[in-house]
Amino acid sequence: MTITSNPSSSTNSILMSMSEAIAKLTCDGSSIVMGSGMEQNIPFSAGHELIRQRRRELTLIGPISDILFDQLIGAGCVKKVCAAWVGNVMMGSAYNFRRSVEQGVPNKIEVVDYSNFAMACALHAAALGIPYMPMRSLLGTDILKNNPNLIEIESPFESHESQAPEKLSAVRALHPDLAIIHAQRADVHGSAHIWGGLGVVADSAKAAKRTLIVADEIVETSVIESDPNRTVVPGFLVDAVVCEPYAAHPSPSQGKYNRDHQHYTEYHAETKTHDGFLDWKKRWILDVPDRAGYRRLLGDARLLDLSVGESAYAAETDFGY
């Protein structure tokens, strides 16, 4: 964590601990968008704190949630999942997700299917403040038939009067209660620099009623202001910011750490049964009080192995005028 002065003393600081942020911004029944950066910057540490605080009846929203949604489902936190895919990016199956859908273990969840593009359009519509977004996607598919937030419509515009109205699909805007977004760095006011794959991060922050930024590093505001184009989420959209190095582990964070392939493989092997998952949850979540304890469990050698092997810096940019 790079800090040149005491950031918590800054005026209007919204920096707080993860336990404080989750307690403040979530409750039973919350709808939460996570994993909006697709396969990088998945906010695992925030998900683990949701489990520690025993949140229930959650609606999880995300295009590609990876094993984070699987862990929340296995812990009994989830009522509904709105997603394009739930699984293990390394190994395929997400066993808790399958057990919940097929066997009702630990509880039966509702699944609302989206494509990645439809999910992106639903969040984009909410970000724009409009009720729905028209698409050409999903026409003729079962997703359109089975998702109540998708319907077939006719275009109100035609270039040739003799033509029949064009068939389109429309997806209802999604307004999550909370967006949890992982960033490489942020200041104490919540303005966040994110680089690499951005997915639908910006729209998630604009669509949600509240936003939590989890950053690997807290920096001075002058660092954020030095590169405004990298500020994917501005502080005025953010309600709390948390600093936790390796908060996205085992997913990667561009320029900070790589994907932990071993962790995904071990999770796949150890969660094939519900009892196996409960043992995994106890060791990796319940028996560690916070992310610092999680990093100690991983060990310094493991963290060093995940570090960036060769830096690749962007060219210097002049924002002068």
Please bin the fraction of helical residues: 25-40%
At the fourth CATH level, what is the homologous superfamily?
Answer: Glutaconate Coenzyme A-transferase
Strand residues, percent:
15-25%
Q: End-to-end span in angstroms?
A: 32 Å
- Which residue ranges are poorly predicted, with pLDDT under 50 across at least 5 consecutive positions? 1-6
Q: Provide a count of the helices.
A: 12
SSE topology sketch:
Layout: H1 18-25, E1 31-33, H2 44-52, E2 58-64, H3 67-74, E3 78-85, H4 95-103, E4 110-113, H5 116-128, E5 132-135, H6 142-146, E6 150-154, E7 167-172, E8 178-183, E9 185-186, E10 192-193, H7 201-207, E11 210-215, H8 221-225, E12 231-233, E13 240-243, H9 261-270, H10 274-286, H11 291-298, H12 300-306
Helix pairs in contact: 2-3, 3-4, 5-7
